[in-house]
Amino acid sequence: MPTATTALPSFDDVIARFDPVMGMEVHVELGTVTKMFCGCSTEFGAEPNTQVCPTCLGLPGSLPVVNRTAVESAMRIGLALNCHIAEYCRFARKNYFYPDMPKNFQISQYDEPIAFDGWTEVTVDTDDGPRVVPIGIERAHMEEDTGKSLHVGGSTGRIHGASHSLLDYNRAGIPLIEIVTKPIEVEAALAPAVARAYVTELRELVRALGVSEARMELGQMRCDANVSLRPRGTTTFGTRSETKNVNSLRSVERAVTYEIRRHAAVLDAGEPVVQETRHWHEDTGETTAGRTKEEAEDYRYFPEPDLVPLAPSREWVEELRGTLPEPPAARRARLQGEWGFTDLEMRDVVNAGAMGLVEETVTAGSDPAGAKKWWLGEIARTANERGAELDQVGITPQQVARVQELIGAGTLNDKLARQVVEGVLAGEGSPDEVIEARGLAVVSDDAALGAAVDDAIAAMPDAAEKVRGGNMGPVGALIGSVMKATQGQADAQRVRELILQRLGE
């Protein structure tokens, strides 16, 4: 069995010999005001165990009541994924003991989900251009979230090696939708990119629906990535592993890539792949074993006796269908036309997960090209260095638009603007606060610029003489001298004008 120190085969080597099959299970916390089966608040960040009641703590005698808004959100997600909405469905008890499950069971749905048999599409880049990949949706079902465990005293934050654990039940009972794909069989080389594209598409969809902020870094959207391998040319699925709670788009792609390579190493060693859950480690780019994966019968599902079945009327379903927003693909096409981006430019924006950020920046007053430049340039580089998503690095679309506004007003040039963005990303405040603290505004005072121009002409008499004689080549050197003297804070165009005025050109 390969260990963490075993050299894994390269991805290219694996896909030459095996075909991966994936299944994605994505949990989305719904943005309801109250929990799934009680009236407790769902507000994020409250003191531990202050948003609980007898129902979400599972105390004897407490009875659940279904959150209507959560049901509507579930149906809208299902409709947006082209699913059938059940005419009749039930909740079920999923029985297992875990410290963050105060009832020792989870109210979920088993064989009768609210939405089933749907599809969506994602687009990925290939050497032959964009490829549209259909993704089948097996089901989308309702359930409640668990509490949160905090393992204290160890070096990894996990239970192994910890001295003790703390439990916060504020999250217990928050409404969840679990969206499960059908087996995803794609060209082997595309598998990791398809996994990332699917989760990206799903996040974009639920945000457009307004049912969740889907902030992966806050646990509002978590992906369980199932991977198996089968030898090239065969049809029988291999044994799968399930990498749990992957919480960024980048990590989804990396985790799938790693598991494909790890499965191949296991098979190459002549060992069987173990059906188990795995933990993803962002710092090492590896997974480690969790627990042996249970089958459905291990959970002893049975109908939830304290809740009546749901029977959504067709009128209700059609009313909700009428609330669906513009489909993500249509939205992308519309925005591309409005922004005047080429196909390649739009793919870059989408692949970077920046479309919503660029849209918000444009709405805040920026031109599209400027918005794209910042999100795919300085900000993307910072996100990569930190291993974070673009919307996690500490700058808002409104702040980016403000930087663009200051450039347009002549207060900043590109060099100074980069320093302003750098300051905002470093937590130094808003763009205006960074400008004031660092003294970064463009020097536009003609008296100050004129003195710097005179100094440059005096220091470079040969260059000045050539310009007087009609040779414009040395103008750049003179401008550079002034820019150096003003630490890059001069308006280069105004400096050029002053140099030519001084030299009679």
UniProtKB/TrEMBL annotation:
Positions of the Asn/Gln amidotransferase domain: 356-503
Matches recorded under Pfam families: GatB_N, GatB_Yqey
Keyword Ligase on entry: yes
Catalytic activity: L-glutamyl-tRNA(Gln) + L-glutamine + ATP + H2O = L-glutaminyl-tRNA(Gln) + L-glutamate + ADP + phosphate + H(+); L-aspartyl-tRNA(Asn) + L-glutamine + ATP + H2O = L-asparaginyl-tRNA(Asn) + L-glutamate + ADP + phosphate + 2 H(+)
GO molecular function term, any single one: asparaginyl-tRNA synthase (glutamine-hydrolyzing) activity
The enzyme's E.C. designation: 6.3.5.-
UniProt xrefs under SUPFAM superfamilies: GatB/YqeY motif, Glutamine synthetase/guanido kinase
Keywords: ATP-binding, Ligase, Nucleotide-binding, Protein biosynthesis, Transferase
InterPro entries the record matches: Asn/Gln-tRNA_amidoTrfase_suB/E, Asn/Gln-tRNA_Trfase_suB/E_cat, Asn/Gln_amidotransferase, Asn/Gln_tRNA_amidoTrase-B-like, GatB, GatB_Yqey_C_2, Gln-tRNA_amidoTrfase_suB_CS, Gln_synth/guanido_kin_cat_dom
A GO BP entry: glutaminyl-tRNAGln biosynthesis via transamidation
Function, as annotated: Allows the formation of correctly charged Asn-tRNA(Asn) or Gln-tRNA(Gln) through the transamidation of misacylated Asp-tRNA(Asn) or Glu-tRNA(Gln) in organisms which lack either or both of asparaginyl-tRNA or glutaminyl-tRNA synthetases. The reaction takes place in the presence of glutamine and ATP through an activated phospho-Asp-tRNA(Asn) or phospho-Glu-tRNA(Gln).
Subunit-level organization: Heterotrimer of A, B and C subunits.
Family stated for the protein in its record: Belongs to the GatB/GatE family. GatB subfamily.
HAMAP family the record matches: GatB
Name of the featured protein: Aspartyl/glutamyl-tRNA(Asn/Gln) amidotransferase subunit B
GN (gene name): gatB
